[in-house]
Automatic annotation (TrEMBL):
Protein name: Biotin operon repressor
BPL/LPL catalytic domain span: 1-176
Molecular function (Gene Ontology), one example: biotin--[biotin carboxyl-carrier protein] ligase activity
Keyword Calcium attached: no
First and last residues shown, out of full length: 83 to 323 of 325
Gene Ontology biological process terms, A to Z: regulation of DNA-templated transcription
UniProtKB keywords: ATP-binding, Ligase, Nucleotide-binding
Length: 241
């Protein structure tokens, strides 16, 4: 598989989208530094030296409504690799991988579809590996951590990347060959969101209640105070207590 390596890009997701139509599935775009790294919900993603900023091009040929499943697949793969290092990685819906309640990884999935079939999916994965937290502006630093800070030692990024790509491929094969409920069960076992009181903000409103489950498309199911349930496919999630 091809790897496009850059010292610096605006955003590996943007580069990956530019080349996705003509590249094979599995192509990787990776950079040391991103100058315009993008997070979910229009946020900025600070991407200094020492992290892993990458995008994987996939061509799963699935309906567009299933594209968000790949976010769960990627989050599970990242969490598994970090857990294999002996750290207690957990997943906060929809896509944050956290250690001791602090974020080490974010995932931004972008898809292009023709009618309802996905042409390609770009899985953008940012992992805070060896950088100093002081390289992150203070307004972004709260609630973040790095693998190095949690492990107490420097991480070999190349071997971490090899382990991750291997694990992602395993999960992707399962995604394509098994009922999605298998991946969902593994994801649920690592989720620290289900069972919590949450407050989810979407562009149009705020929903509060208890996170009680996840739908096969990755939507969070919230049971509200009036006992009705609501499914939310995208939003910002805060743990209320
Ligand atoms: C989030 O938690 O808001 C998602 C963050 C995603 C960051 C990664 S870094 C590689 C790829 N390129 C980007 O511009 N963003 C993603």
């Amino acid at each position: 598989k091809k790897i496009h390596y850059y010292e610096e890009v605006t955003s590996t997701n943007s580069t990956a989208k530019d080349i996705a139509a003509s590249e094979e599935e599995g192509t990787l775009v990776i950079a040391e530094v991103q100058k315009g790294g993008r997070g979910r919900l229009g946020r900025e993603w600070v991407s200094p030296h020492g992290g892993i900023w990458m995008s994987v091009i996939l061509k799963p040929g699935i309906p567009l409504r299933h594209a968000s499943r790949l976010t769960l697949v990627a989050g599970l793969a990242v969490a598994n690799v970090i857990r294999n290092m002996g750290l207690d990685a957990r997943i906060k819906w929809p896509n944050d991988v956290r250690i001791n309640g602090k974020k080490v990884c974010g995932i931004l999935t972008e898809a292009k579809a023709e009618v309802d079939r996905v042409d390609y999916v770009v899985l953008g994965i940012g992992i805070n590996v060896n950088m100093d937290l002081k390289d992150i502006p203070e307004s972004f630093r709260a609630g973040s951590t790095t693998l190095k800070a949690e492990l107490g030692s420097h991480i070999k990024r190349v071997s971490f990347l090899q382990d991750f790509l291997f694990e992602l491929e395993q999960q992707y094969i399962l995604f394509k060959t098994q009922p999605f409920s298998h991946i969902l069960n593994d994801w649920l076992a690592l989720s620290d969101t289900i069972g919590r009181e949450v407050k989810v903000t979407t562009p149009s409103r705020i929903i509060e209640g208890k996170a009680v489950g996840i739908t096969p498309d990755g939507a969070l199911v919230i049971r509200k105070a009036d006992d009705t349930k609501e499914e939310i496919i995208a939003g910002r999630c805060i743990y209320a207590r």
